[in-house]
Design brief:
The protein is 29% helix and 23% strand. The chain is of the alpha/beta class and 191 residues long. Helix 1 (11-22) packs across helix 6 (148-161).
Amino acid sequence: MMYLIKDAFQPIGFHLVDYLLKQGEEVVGVDKLDQPIAEHASLMVGRNANFIHYETIAAFLKDQQSNLANYSFIFIGQETDLIEYFEDKGDCYAINSSELLSKKNTVTSIELPLLEGRWLTQQNNRVVWQQQFFPVEASKIEAPVVDLDVFISIVYHILKASLTPGVIKIKHKKAEIKQVELPFIIHSISC
């Protein structure tokens, strides 16, 4: 099985690409190289023989249209149109997808918890939520956050388990639902 990851050089996508490659998996990363962080990330994984990069989904489809059944498709964020296109072509996973997608019975939707970890909270003054960084005072966060490496490992096990499509919510083991001083509330259950 090969994995296609959209937004492969964004924080969560990059860590997932890196983890999959370390597990010996074959990965296609789709992302533009229009930002210095994306170029840096591409240099870190681009030399791996199991990695292929495309700047756009259209370029990927031009090369791989006949081989789509060999892929699992992983989308991070609000990629509703793309997910609807790929959902009947292979296993489809949506990390942090919209409510609409979580109601589909052909997509495994993985809700994104509040994350911290390398590249995310290097000075304990920012967190990532929905692929965006938010400045925070670490002592003000009451809800437990999930370590990025732990989250990526859980996602990998979900991919390997080929679970029946549905919604998967990941939270810290000791978490209680609490208001965070950010523009959202974490609603989670353990899986």
